[in-house]
Amino acid sequence: MAIDPYAGCNELIDQSLCTFETCCLAQSHFLYLPNYGANMFFCIFFAIMILPQIGLGIYYKTWGFMVSMILGLLLELFGYESRVQINLNPWGANPFLLYLICLTIAPVFIAAAIYLCLTRVLVLYGKDISRFAPRTVALSFMFSDFLSLVFQAAGGAIADTANTPSATQTGANIMIVGLVLQAVSLGTFLIFCADYAWRCSKSVLNDDPEAVRTRGRMLFKVSMGGLLFATMTILIRSIFRAAELSGGFHGTLWNNETDFLILDGAMIALAEGKDCRGGQGREAGLVFGLVLALGHVGEDARVEGLNVHNRMMRDLES
């Protein structure tokens, strides 16, 4: 049964002192009460997804990828746990602040993990085919990611601690800048990948025997699709959040939980799932993590993956 957000309003009570008996939802941060079951589901999902990231990261020693993914997962977990707390007390300031900041910046770290994967893929196919050196590509996208993180975190803090409507909107506008920057960065990333794929089709690829065998594996091709899929889901989420905030904290999108759960929660869950199954192998940063997760890694395959990775790392350092 839907709750009337304006039923029982009492503007004489300070928001921090509100309860379900004394205030209405319109005096809280949303015009709806966050769904307990749906938000708890995402809490459990992101908590579970941390475990394979730790195991695969330690096994393959992919420290950068592991740290980025775990930070993203933890922020998602804290964000949805905060929404569960909002369900219990819609007027609390601290849970809302945690929700706003954590779920806004979490995808930044997931995107960083994707950018790390790209550098290894460039070396596997041929770093000379790329218009830019792998290191330049990684640093450029990760610098953009960092700027996006700064704008989103700063805007979230300003919006929640503001004392006037204009200051709140200023914080929201800063967050929008960060989200748009993230969307532009991800869009540019997809364009770069498409250009690199086209150049690969016209060029001689890295002819290292182990690299050739790796590229020919079906699991590698599937994981490349997973990487692309994860990028697109995060892009969709960034566009949605920018549109959501552009309407303000009283806008239609901001107060529609169904849209939020689908275009934010589900999109990031799909991205995390793809990265976890296809993201942590040492060869190319992708395939052997998927194979390990499925329990089909043989010793020969593992040794092959390690050899390819070591050669790739030497190329990156040269």
From TrEMBL:
Any matching Pfam family: RTA1
Keywords: Membrane, Transmembrane, Transmembrane helix
Entries under InterPro entries matching the protein: RTA1
Keyword Zinc found: no
Regions crossing the membrane: 36-56, 63-80, 96-125, 137-159, 171-198, 219-240
Domain of life: Eukaryota
Compartment annotation: Membrane
Primary site of residence: membrane
Protein topology in the membrane: Multi-pass membrane protein
UniProt protein name: Phospholipid-translocating ATPase rsb1
Organism for this UniProt entry: Rachicladosporium monterosium
